[in-house]
Amino acid sequence: MADHHSTGTGPLRINPTPAWPWVHIRWVIIALVVLAIAGCDQKPAVTPANLTSTYDITGELLAMRQNANALGNASARFLAGPDQASRESLQKAWVAAHIAYLKLSTGNAVPPPLAASIDPWPIEPGFIDTLPDYPDSGIVSDTTLSITSATLREQHQFSDEVEVSLGFHVIEYFAFSRQVEDFLPGVEPNDRRRLMLAAVVAALIQDLGDALGILEVAGSGPAPQAMLETLQANIALMARETQMQPGHGQASGTVNDGLLVRAQTTQSLLFEFSNIGRTLEATSPRLASDMRHNLQEITGLLLQDITRETEGLRVLVTGLDFQLREAATVLGGGQSTPGPDPWQP
Asked: Which end of the chain is more exposed for a tag (fewer CB within 10 A), N or C?
């Protein structure tokens, strides 16, 4: 594989780092309470057969298809006539499609190979395109590579997970971090950049179609136990994301929006569209109460400016991860997905 970082100073890397260095006493106390409730009031585990759900994903599947098509159309219009208006339309279409995907995937298990092509994050911009200090970096600059969906699939995460050439966040980079002038046709590397945007959008729409087809075959929605496991896996992912910079959706300014839709969807699926919450209230009432309270606290932080409460959000989401894993055990779920250590910043 060609080295897209050959600049003489080594490859560009985005090293995810914790967003906060110290845990305030207030959040340490919350963490202790969150972890202390596990197992305190458990009654015998129920069987998965006792869990029911009214969750119907038909509407979410339709919304995802519509938003994916809108993103494709907005990309085509932008490339046909790059200007600020078409760029803003592309940005809005990206946000709507990405939020729709986060909502759908929160309670529905997208096969890992497809998920890794649809929404991989974090990404390394220097693997995609030129940067001010590295004018020859990226696939866009590597003229030894033809830019097609097939080539981008070959390059995608070839040697490192952050070396991303597919998915939402490559499009986010082009739509939000590059300027209109970077897509004017007739000059290089603009023409290669235009080809790459079109190819990534086409690959994303194909991958989303494959994922939606799998979910449609599965029926109206996942079984409650499978949904609980998927929710826990996504909350564990959220917990890791709250420790990293830049945030998931940083370029588009949608970090909070992405976290919020997943928190709200988790709360709805647990307490509105299934009897998981009610069953947990009967089986382990303290765990159910604290889980509901935790979700409300997370939602409250995300609805306001959380720049000063980043450590609090991290502790709450990490606590929710532990609670969901405990709930999976209480409700007869067997093994659960390991989460991050809440004491490691």
From this structure: N
Residue 78 maps to which CATH number?
1.20.1420.20
A 10 A CB-CB count for 223 gives 16
155 SS3 class: helix
For residues 164 and 228, state if they share a domain.
no
Q: Is residue 191 part of a domain?
A: yes
Phi, psi values for residue 274, rounded to 5°: -155, 170
Distance from C-alpha of 328 to C-alpha of 341, rounded to nearest angstrom: 18
Q: How far apart are the C-alpha atoms of 204 and 7, rounded to whole Å?
A: 30
User: What pTM was estimated for this model as a whole?
Assistant: 0.84
Structural domain containing residue 285: 20-55+222-345
Indicate whether 199 and 125 sit together in one domain.
yes
Residues 6+ apart with CB under 8 A from 154: 1
Tens-digit pLDDT profile for residues 244-273:
888 899 999 999 999 999 999 999 999 998
Alpha helices (H) along 24-57: 25-36
| Peptide bond preceding 21 in cis form (omega within 30 of 0) | no
Measured between alpha carbons, how far is 316 from 323 in angstroms, rounded to an integer? 10
Residue 134, strand partner residues: 131
Q: Which residues of the chain have pLDDT under 70?
A: 1-49, 219, 305-309, 333-345
- Residues 270, 338, single domain; the answer is yes
Helix axes 285-302, 310-330, angle to 10 degrees: 150
Q: 3-class SS at 134?
A: strand
